[in-house]
Amino acid sequence: MAAELLKIHPENPERRKINHVVDVLRDGGIIVYPTDTIYGIGCDLMNRKAIARLCQIMDIKPQKLDLSFICNDLSHISEYVRRLETSTFKLLKKSLPGPFTFILESSTKVPKILDVNKKTVGIRIPDHMIPRTIVELLGNPLITSSIKDDDKIKEYTTDPEEIYEDFKHVVDVVIDGGPGGNVPSTIVDCTSDDIQILRQGLGDIEQFL
Fold first, then answer.
1. Arithmetic mean of pLDDT, 122-143
2. Is the separation of the CB atoms in 73 and 135 below 8 Å?
3. How far, CA to CA in Å, does 79 sit from each of 73, 82, 84, 186?
4. 30 near 175, Cβ under 8 Å?
5. How many CB atoms lie within 10 A of CB 206?
6. Of 3.90.870.10, 3.40.50.1110, 3.40.50.300, 2.60.120.40, which CATH number belongs to 4-199?
7. How far apart, in whole angstroms, are the C-alpha atoms of residue 13 and residue 186?
8. Is the entire prediction scored with pTM above 0.90?
9. pLDDT of residue 136
């Protein structure tokens, strides 16, 4: 059965449609969704079968999974990262929601969820109402695979209908939230006192330092 192409208003997401997406996620579904950078692909963090399926779709081994969690707000991340230093918390507070992925030390809960011994986790709070509303109603973060040149997802595809054609036979819902961006998030490593930019993408983190 082909995936559903679901149009959702990017600024005022229709609650009925978001609830439908949440139901799909709770049933182990995989979705493609817009963010404030490029379109992403993900599933419910708490559904192990869905994570295994996501890895299969992206053709990656669970041990190689780059963990990136889509969260709703800063309070949402406390379960998944170790205690934040005051300076790091201030940086996140000033720059989020925004086009940044922050690499942080993971809490002991993360390996238990994923059965993978990962010491770090990527945290995203996108400045986009669709994924944040989904996460808010779901009650769990979305886990999304890193989008790289060697991934199956097209890194710079901006047309959701074109994305749908590529993914309609492997995911359950493709959300059309309008044209996507073509620049990925900036990845910022905050696991040491010396903050490092691992990938310069959309957004200038220097203005918040």
1. 96
2. no
3. 12, 8, 11, 23
4. no
5. 8
6. 3.90.870.10
7. 26
8. yes
9. 96
- Which residue carries 């944040």 as its tokens? 132
Query: What pLDDT sits at residue 149?
Result: 41
* DSSP E strand boundaries for 134-190: 142-144, 173-176, 186-189
Give the Cα-Cα-Cα angle 110, 13, 45 (nearest 5 degrees).
15
150 or 131: which leads in pLDDT: 131
Which amino acid type is present at position 109? K
Look up residue 15 and give its two tokens.
Answer: 């609650």
Cis peptide before 179 (omega within 30 of 0): no
pLDDT at residue 61 greater than cutoff 90 = no
Tokens of 163: 């994305």
Place of tokens 């990938």: 199
Q: What's the token pair of residue 61?
A: 């081994």
